Amino acid sequence: MILPIVAYGDTVLKKVGKDITKEYPNLDNLLDNMFETMYNAFGVGLAAPQIGLPIRLFLVDTSPFADDETLSKEAQKALKDFKRVFINAKIIKEEGDEWAFNEGCLSIPDVREDVFRQPKITVEYVDEHFEKHTEVFEGLIARVIQHEYDHIEGILFTDKLSSLKKRLIKGKLNNISKGKINVDYRMRFPDQKKKR
To answer: Of 94, 98, 148, 153, which residue is the catalytic one?
Structure first.
């Protein structure tokens, strides 16, 4: 089932998510719905707060980036094959010189800005079977994970922008929170409590 994506301005996007256990109700169904919602909106990641749930859960599928011909064949293959569920994730290390990449967010449609992040991360998490992993990720995969991880920490990519950039996009953000935007996927807007 395709769920409405929570728009910028909703308080759930600013909450730090809570850990969940394997007894979390209807988790398999929730994951299926989240993947379906993400694909419907042409996203590469989706976090539970973006569908209104303040829990530490996000999923990633970087395959759309695999078509980028500026990347090495090895990088393209890694991106094509990367589909993962992260539950109760903690980034335990970030390494390397920060690099800029133009990011967007399904909760903040039509806003894209360069965000600086470190290229290499170490993450502890459990998967959908509640098996524990500690893994190192690099490049675009690391970036997508960092973006989604921020969501479960109550952080949006716009929070990482300079005060000048924030002022420049303030009008757009206000319009998004009021539902004054055209999107081709379902959204829930905080100011009007309506769905589209």
So the answer is: 148
Q: What is the pTM of this model?
A: 0.94
Residue 39: count of CB within 10 angstroms of its CB: 14
Does some domain include residue 122?
A: yes
* Residue 40 included in any domain: yes
Angstrom distance (rounded) from CA 94 to CA 122? 7
Using DSSP's 3-state secondary structure scheme, residue 57 falls into strand
Distance CA 5, CA 186 (A): 6
pLDDT in tens, 64-119: 988 888 888 888 888 999 999 999 999 999 999 999 999 999 999 999 999 999 99
Catalytic annotation present for 148:
yes
Which residue range(s) make up the domain with 47?
5-178
Give the CATH number for residue 144.
3.90.45.10
**According to the model, what pLDDT value does residue 182 have?**
93
Residue 190 counted as domain residue: no
